[in-house]
Design brief:
Blueprint lengths: L7 E9 L2 E9 L11 E6 L13 E4 L2 E3 L1 H8 L8 E5 L7 E2 L6 E4 L12 H14 L7 E5 L7 H8 L3 E4 L14 E4 L16 E3 L15 E5 L3 E4 L13 E3 L5 E5 L9 E10 L6 H9 L4 E8 L3 E4 L19 E11 L3 E10 L1 E6 L11 E5 L6 E9 L3 E11 L6 E8 L15 E3 L9 E3 L3 E8 L4 E11 L14 E2 L9 E4 L18 E5 L2 E2 L7 E8 L9 E7 L8 E8 L8 E3 L13 E6 L6 E9 L6 E11 L7 E2 L3 E3 L2 E4 L1 E2 L3 E5 L6 E2 L7 E2 L7 E7 L2
Parallel strand pairs: 8-12, 9-10, 9-11, 11-12
Antiparallel strand pairs: 1-2, 1-49, 3-41, 4-33, 5-6, 6-32, 7-31, 8-30, 13-16, 14-15, 14-17, 17-30, 18-29, 19-26, 20-25, 20-28, 20-29, 21-24, 21-26, 22-23, 22-25, 26-27, 32-41, 33-40, 34-40, 35-39, 35-41, 36-37, 36-40, 37-38, 42-45, 43-44, 44-48, 46-47, 46-49
Amino acid sequence: MTTYPCRIFRLKLKARGAGWAGAMALALGGFVWSTHSQTLIYQEGFNSDGETNVPPRYTTTGRDVYEVPRIRSELNNADQKGPIYWAHNFEVSFVGIPEIPARRMIFAWSGANDTSTASEDFFQLFESSVKWMLKDKANAVIVVTPDATTIGGLADRLRAAGYTVNDDDPTILDDSQVAGDLFIHAINPNNPSRFALVAKPVIIMNAPDLDDMIVGSIGTTTTFTPGSVEIAAPAHPAAGGKTGTFPLATGDFSFHLVGRFLPQGATTLATVEHSIPPAVTRLSDVDEMIAGTKPSTVSTGQVTSLDFSDNSPGNWFDDNSLPGGETGNWGLRAKGKLSVVTSGTYSVAIGSDDGARLQIDLDKNGFTTSDTIIEDLGPHTHLIQYGDVTFPATGVYDFQIVAYNTGTASPGSLEFSVANIVGGGTRSALDSGEWDLVGTATPTSPVTAQGLIDVNGYVAIGATTVVKEPLIILLNGPDDTPRGFFYGGGPFEGFEGTGFFAASGLNKWDLLTGGYPNNQGYRSLQLKPVDVTGRRNVKLNVALAGAQIDFETTDFLDILAYTNGVSGTPVRLAHFRGVETGVQPWLADEMEGLTRRLTRQFADFEYDIPTNATQLVIEFRAATTWWNEILAFDNVRITEGSIITRPQFDPPTITGGNVRISWTGSGRLQESTNLTSWSAVSNPPNPYLVTPGSAPYKFYRIISP
């Protein structure tokens, strides 16, 4: 019997004629008994070096720590501005994104632009921003990487303002030793993190390096005719007293626009108008066209197989055209039915250029967010995203896919594949023989398309949209009020005890074996075997964390379970990877539809262990490619038993002089007058009417069925 650790009601009863009223007091502390529903079998907290134990608590491959001086001297690598490691946090100088060392500025104007038609107001705004960055220091030395020609006419303007503008010296590997008062990280630098951590102001003018400079997620480069510049923060000293709007320049120009994510506290000093013709640029645009809230033209059609190609062939060869012959910029919705002849869990895959969402109506109540199996927001070139879906029974299930292709002349694609064997976790290549194209003429999978697939193609129409793109963004330094932050800045937090295991820049050593030991493509940590023979409801709990910057789809953290010793084939419990290459810069579990991301705050994740496990071995495998691509794990626990949802009493009520108690959850209601002997209440309704008696008090509790 389990007595749940829920609240116990103490009711003081007072007779009143034929009825009675209750004055109620709620006892919380001394009236609670409980037994744990989960039993801890094993725990590893990484608070000491378990690899030195005899026998070791775990073993690793490729373990090492390279601080920056060692990176330069032994690896001859100047790109990595922080430590790289596969080690405990207490073996490393710092685990996390560093704090911002000085002011930073993102300038979206491309240095390759011709400034001959630029307005005087534009130059003055640039100069007042530089002045703020330098804290009004006169005659300052400004260093441009790779050289001053990469900022074009801006270099001449700075010299005219009394500054010295020098080319960067790439032979100085330690960029903190480059002589200068302000640094500009311009287009095509030799090092994507050049000047990232120098304790002096830095201006970043290269969209692909915004993440490596830790000032935001990767931006985009585009060309358009700029409209008016608007001062978004006129009270900021960097505005130089300017307010309102003014023209930027005449003609088409290149801009290095910011990405989707910026650090907390970032200040948009000025914006520039960007006129965008009607277009499909994201999944939500397609949702709006389907709903009729975004104007569009719609074409309809039917196909037998779900393989569309707009000059992007993908992995299969049916290559259907879109229903209206749409090319370049379009949205698409495909709706069909899946026939399932063998129930169970199957892997599915969506290949798309630029993005797609797969939904399967498993509960057969229409499409809702809970039916989403894969959501790939994009944009990107043709990319495969995997997921698992469990069909509870044989039969027919509706499915829906929404997809899009952005750009005007760029290729696009959509493909829907399903594994031909029951059991999730299939992540092999689509030509491995383990996959079917949904709707193929020769299916081998128990999950097949039933009948034709209905398709709608959408093309956006309507008025041109004017967007205000950030032109200048400012990040405060550590001495400003309020203080500034790098994107995702700060150490990892919330770990158990004093230690955890972490990874950064894992492919930067063991260079003779492909950047990883034994050419295996990852570094690993394997825990000692744990005997779980005969155990029931065995679960793995682990705390995970990760920086939220710069992860590619090839970066990953895998959690594997060898169920019967390491001689067998492991079961993959989780595959955290970059959601999109640098565009959405975080790690999320592909096996859970990329819905739960890692942050620098450790959070618990729970996984079911297969029921046939005996000698359980848990292994972590990781791959990352840059010094600020950091992931970590801690507090591994293996438990037996289920977490029970405990019943909770609701506040009691009095209706017509009668006391009623109610509760949520299941269990047996018992009552007592002395907390020593308890009697069951036979088949009580919920809520339950408390009956008077001779005792002055009654107590109520709920126990397990």
